[in-house]
Each structure stands twice: as C-alpha cells, then as structure tokens.
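Quick one: co-fold with pyridoxal-5'-phosphate.
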Amino acid sequence: MTNKQAFLEAKKYIPGGVDSPVRAFGSVGEDPLIIDHGKDEFLYDIEGKQYVDYVLSWGPLIFGHCEKDIENAVINTAKKGLSFGAPCLLETELAKLVLSKFEWLDKIRFVSSGTEATMSAIRLGRGFSGKDGIVKFEGCYHGHSDSLLVKAGSGATTFGYSSSLGVPEDIVKNTHLATYNDLESVEKCFKNADIGVIIVEPIAGNMGLVPGNLEFLEGLRKICDKFGAVLIFDEVMSGFRASATGSYEFNKIKADIITFGKVIGGGMPCAAYAGKKEIMDLISPLGGVYQAGTLSGNPVAMAAGLASLNKIYATPNLYDELGKKSKFIIDTLQSSANEAGIPLQTDMRGSMWGYFFNENPVKNYADALKSDTKMFAKFHAQMLKRGIYLAPSQFETSFVCTKLSKDSLDKTASAVKESFKAL
Ligand SMILES: *Cc1c(COP(=O)(O)O)cnc(C)c1O
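Sure, here it is.
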C-alpha cells in the first residue's frame, strides 16, 4: 500500500484521516507519510522510505526512536500489569526525581496529556487566587481545553481559526488575550478585569519558535506578585527540551506552577503539573480543587518517564551537544537562505530550533503571521523529497535528538542547500 492509498482509507473512518489536525499536512498541501516504524533519528514510512526525523513525535523523543533503556523499562513494567488505578512506587520515584531539579516546587500531580495538565493548572490557579480572569497570549498553545482555545497556536494557527466552534462565549469571556513579549498589553488586562492567573509558554513553540525575552518574563512575575495572581509556565514543550530545567536555565524565574508533558513521558502518554505546597495542597483529596484520571500515573507511563529523565540526568553535556546540532542546522538554514536571497529568521533554545520565512525578527503572533507560508510549503516539499521530515507547518518548532549523527546532519545540510536553490 502507498501512503496515498492508506491515507484515503483512513479518511473514510477517521475525520481528516488523523487523530490530531496538524498531522494531515493540510497547510503544506501534501499527503502525510504513514509511518511503519522509527529507529534512532529515522522514521520509515509504509513505502519503506527513510526520513531524518525532526518532529520526534512533536518533542517527546529526545533520545530518538526505540531508545533501549526506555524500551526495556516499558516492556519490563508492562509485564507486571498496565494499570492498577491504585498507587504504585514508580509515581513517587518520578515525582521525587522531577522535584529534586526544581528546588522551589514541592509537589507534582501526574496526568496523561499536556491538555489535562494546563487545564488542571488553570483550575488550580483560579481556585487558589479566587479570581476567574486569566491572561493568555496570542499564539501560545496550551492544549485544547475550552478556556484556552482562544487565538491558540499550533494546529489552531495552521488552520486559521482564532477559536473553535463549540466553545461557549460564556467560558472564553474570562480569557483575556495579551500580546507575547509585550508587558503593556498584560497591564491592560489587569486594569480591565480581575485576573487570577497568567499562563504563558516562556519559550513559545507553538507559533513557531519565539522565545520570551527576559524583561517580559520578569515583568510577568512582578505583575503576578503585585496582584496576587498565579504565574503558570507552560513547559509541556520546553521542559527537559530547552535544558534539564526547561526555561529556568535561561530566565531563573520561579513560576508558581509549571506544567510538563512530552519529554516527561519519554513517548508514553504522561504529563504533570507541579507547584508550591500551599498551592498544590488545594488539589483533591486534600483541598477543594477537583482533578482525577483513570490512567493517571499508570506504571508504564511512569517507567518510560523515569527512564527518559534518568538518562537525561546521567548524560553529561547533553544539552550542549544537542545545542550544537541545533546550531549547525539553523546556521545552515540561514546561510543557504542568504545565498538564495530569501528572507529567513532563525532561533534555537537547546534541542529546539525554528525558522520563519519572514523579513523581520518574530517577537509575537502578529509577526509570525506575516511569514510567507507559501514559501514554507514549497521548502517543506523540497526537504521531504530529499528524505528530511520537518514539521508540516510554519507555526511549529523542530527538534533534534541525541541519535542524530554527523551523516544525517550532513545529509540535512545538503538537502537544505539544494532546497533553497530549487525555490
Ligand atoms: C503540546 C503542548 C500542549 C498540549 O499537550 P498534549 O499532550 O498535546 O495535550 C500544551 N502546551 C504546550 C506548550 C504544548 O507544546
């Protein structure tokens, strides 16, 4: 079966043929690859073609596909049962490991997706502050819960809707939109409404890669302190990706709640939110903020997360090495674009890297939207043809994994040069 045939078949039974919209390759006008298997830095489609993978399941696979320690942990744990709906030792072990790296966070609650983590963190933040209003930034994506699906990035940007059908006005009326990297827009929100929570991606990765600048993030901390609001750093993507401590390595700001996902599960469905004791103790069964999950903290997800994080902390210079790979790629992109006379903006944080077909530096969502998405689509197709699998949208971040070899980097560099020439 070809990719095309398999996708046609899938579309008969699954809306759009996919279980998450951006996978449909809609914004680049191609058919998606249907994946057979992955190994190290490679994906293999059902036609048997090999691709260097810079999507890495949208972030989780920092050690690439089929990493032995993670694979063994999952297999061995699965043999003892997949889920108990009762406490297991691995939950406490993973909790201790994560919290030991963030000295100001006292407790953590595990859930199964980033969406659940941010949704629950918002509920907790509102419960703690006693105020309904929240501030979210245009272009930041925090999963698809109702109150956060307003001018969200990721698939929601790719598909050009600023919101979603089926989200009641009554719910989003408490969501106040501000401009990323713009403190004045945040102050305005606080002037106009009773705000109890700010949620932000400190390193935005869902409108393309747009790091928050230091004054902006420090300003958010100050505003929250002044108004008694809860600061949530959504590090579902940047956690254990930008560095071992996510954005903290770069900004040294202590958020009240941090949400984790992606890498924390090593490829299994696992996410979490962590905070100070006085906040976290408000969660049921200790306090009045309800949150639960049938498969939360299941042993297999915990084992995958533990194996992944243990390996991260046991690997010296991990993020320096990953950073060198990111740097090599964005440097190649930039120099090839310059040679071709095509305006391009590039940036990176650790193992995250991004590029915009844009004349000017991108500081916020409005800037990102000025990118040349048609040019992006052409570039994407050229790269795919040459065996390089990039995220199929201008408004996503790309990643590198530890397994990415010199050969694959060289192959990528050649593909980049040839693709720019072909544009
Ligand atoms: C991926 C992501 C989410 C949503 O996580 P899911 O596991 O897809 O629900 C939330 N916030 C950020 C910053 C993300 O990158």
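If it helps, The longest strand covers residues 195-200.
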